[in-house]
Every structure is written in C-alpha cells, then in structure tokens.
TrEMBL record:
PANTHER family: ACETOIN CATABOLISM PROTEIN X, ATP-NAD KINASE-RELATED. The lineage of its organism: Bacteria, Bacillati, Actinomycetota, Actinomycetes, Micrococcales. It holds the Pfam family NAD_kinase. GO terms for molecular function: ATP binding; NAD binding; NAD+ kinase activity. It comes from Microbacterium pseudoresistens. This is Putative polyphosphate/ATP-dependent NAD kinase. Keywords: Kinase, Transferase. SUPFAM superfamilies: NAD kinase/diacylglycerol kinase-like. InterPro entries: AcoX-like (IPR039065), ATP-NAD_kinase_N (IPR017438), NAD/diacylglycerol_kinase_sf (IPR016064), NADK (IPR002504), Put_ATP-NAD_kin (IPR011386). GO terms for biological process: NADP+ biosynthetic process.
Length: 369
C-alpha cells in the first residue's frame, strides 16, 4: 500500500549554528550567516531522513514543494514524489506555511518537516492538531518536543505510523527570542500544540529547566573538571548554564550561549565560530566540556553546532567531558543521554557507555545513544 508523506524542507534551517549566530531566524541573520561562510546543511539532513524512511517503506510517496523545498531531496534519494507548490525564487517562512496548507488540502497522512523551532512554529500555525507531524532536527536550538532524535530515527518511526501501529500525542511547540538569546537572555514562549507519534525511543522531549540544587555539587564538579584538564591541551567549553557555573567556579568569565576555549586554566577565546575554534585548537589534541540539555539529555547537536563535523572527527571520545549535577542527572534516569552529530557515522563514534562527572572524584555511568 502506498503511503503519502508530506515533506517540507527549510533549506536555510540551522545555517547560523556553525558561525555562532545563536539561531537562523530572519532574512538578516541568514544573509549574515552566508556572508560568514556558513554552508546550509538542512538538505543533507532531509536526505538522511528520507533515505531511512525508504529503507523501511520503499513504496512511500512524498508530497512536497518544488526545488529546495523538498523536490531536490526526493530526486537525489530516488524517492517517488509529487510537487504541490512551485520552487520559490528565494525562501521564507511563508513558503513553509504555503506548503503546509497544500499538504493539508491534499490529505497527507503525516507531515515530515526539516528545520528547527521556527519551522515548527510555521507548521503549527497552519496544521495545528489536524495532521500528525514529525520534525527532522536541522535547526540550532530545537527546544520543542516534536523532533526525532536524529534524522535516522525518523525512518522506522514513520514506517510504523503508516502501518497504523503508532498512537499520537500532543506536544508543545516552543521557541525563544533569538535576539534576546544573542544578548545572553533566555526568553521562551509557547506557540501551540501539534500531534506527534508516541515514541520516547525516537522523539526528543522538550527542553526543561532544572533548579541549580546544592551549590557545592557544582563546586565539586568544577574541581574534578580542572583536574581532568591536561596541561597544554585546549578545552572547548560548550554553552549552557551548567558549564557557565563550572567556569565561574574556576574564575573564568565564559559566555552563556557560545563555545569558548580554555588553555591551562586561562580563557583564550569566547563565543567562537567553527573556523575560529579550528584555529584555536590547531592540529593537536583538544578536549570538549559539555552538559546535557535539561529535559532532553542531548550532549551534542543542540545549540553547540560550532563544534562541527571536522572537529568531532578529530575528537577522541575519551576527551569528551560530560558534566551534570545530580539533580539534573535525575531527569535522565532510565533514559540515558543522546547525541545528534552531523553524520550517523559520528553518532556511532560517540555512542556507548560514558562516564559523567557528577562531583569531585564522582562519576555516574550512563549510556549515550
């Protein structure tokens, strides 16, 4: 039986990530990102998802938009498809809404959209809770609980939806004010709800905050992190409040939402893009310090895309330092941590049982999947 899957690709989703622009919403930011050498990668992630779907359901026909809105991906992957709206001369949020409306009118069984929280907002504004949707993560932040963990997770999940073996549930669409984020302030807003497949093994949870807990736990983590930094080896500090608090305990004024560099206990670079990070670490060994995203458990692929594929391919998995206070870690009990690297090969490189720093001389053993 042929299944009709809607496909919306936001071709500029995530374009601001590697160049440290803290998002990609708006024409001005997209032009700036491209001027800084950013390479759009949403189409590649869309191809990974479409390929995974075809591997499970080769008869799937994709209803999509012309050119960069989805047609190009379908042609590249050899997928059966039908174009509902023509290719745009230049892309905007309106293209997403227009294609979503066409998919709704055409009776798509499920809409697969490739983008971030901004794309989710546009889909939600048109579709609401009328048709199940699933996001392929291609943005920078992705706080909403509507995205597959990785593009590859979309394949078996979509196949079970079409087979009628998967229930759906309401999920929140949340986005933040990117201008406020660039200024170091987090201001999130609920924009509505959509229906997503019930699949905790394949769909990420929404981002959730957590109270700081005992300050001494961060003190202990900071002491342990300092002890694991190797002399003469730079360490990249990932974004987020946990890493910032660790840095503060070590006398470092790190950026809240950027990627910084520390060498021998001294902050040598702040809020750097991928190119600057490559320059900072040179050709030798380096370490990376990250903390899981609250509620989600993501350690790579959400808000830290400046640590790009080339850097991750050089990073020894043993040099990926994961730190998490016990209260925050309790959110991931029974679930483990997650990774969404720029390729499935890199995902496999960093998966497995990993030690998580939870205090001074204290580790917890969690699976990264």
């Amino acid at each position: 039986m042929t299944s009709a899957c809607g496909l919306i690709v936001n071709p500029v989703a995530g374009v601001g990530g590697e160049v440290a622009l803290a998002g990609s919403d708006g024409d001005r930011v997209q032009r700036l990102a491209l001027s800084k050498g950013a390479v759009p990668r949403a189409s590649l992630k869309a191809g990974r998802a479409v390929g995974a779907i075809l591997a499970r359901s080769p008869e799937t026909v994709f209803l999509t938009g012309g050119g960069v809105l989805g047609e190009d991906v379908c042609r590249r992957e050899g997928a059966g498809h039908r174009v509902l709206v023509p290719a745009p001369q230049s892309t905007s949020a309106e293209d997403t809404r227009r294609l979503a409306q066409a998919l709704r009118d055409e009776g798509a069984e499920l809409i697969l959209f490739v983008g971030g929280d901004g794309t989710a907002r546009d889909v939600c504004a048109v579709i609401g809770e009328d048709i199940p949707v699933l996001g392929v993560p291609a943005g920078v932040k992705m706080h909403s609980g509507v995205f597959a963990i990785t593009p590859e997770h979309a394949g078996p999940l979509v196949a079970t939806v079409f087979a009628g073996h998967r229930a759906v549930e309401r999920a929140e669409v949340v986005d933040i004010d990117e201008d406020a984020r660039r200024a170091g302030r987090l201001s999130a807003r609920l924009y509505g709800h959509v229906l997503v497949p019930v699949a905790p093994e394949a769909v990420q949870r929404g981002k959730a905050g957590v109270s700081p807990g005992d300050p001494s736990s961060v003190d202990g983590i900071a002491a342990e992190v300092a002890g694991r930094w190797e002399p003469g080896v730079p360490c990249l500090l990932g974004p987020g409040t946990t890493v910032q608090r660790i840095a503060e305990r070590l006398g470092l004024s790190s950026s809240l939402l950027g990627v910084d560099v520390v060498l021998d206990g001294v902050l040598t670079g702040s809020d750097l893009d991928a190119t600057a990070l490559h320059d900072a670490v040179g050709a030798g060994r380096f370490q990376v310090l990250v903390s899981p995203v609250g509620g989600q458990g993501m350690v790579l692929g959400r808000g830290n895309q400046q640590i790009d594929a080339a850097l991750l391919s050089r990073l020894d998995p043993a040099d990926l330092l994961i730190a998490c206070p016990p209260r925050k870690l309790a959110q991931f009990a029974g679930r483990g941590l997650l990774i969404d690297a720029p390729s499935d090969a890199l995902n496999r490189r960093f998966r497995g049982m990993r030690r998580v720093i939870v205090g001074h001389r204290e580790d917890a053993l969690l699976r990264v999947a």
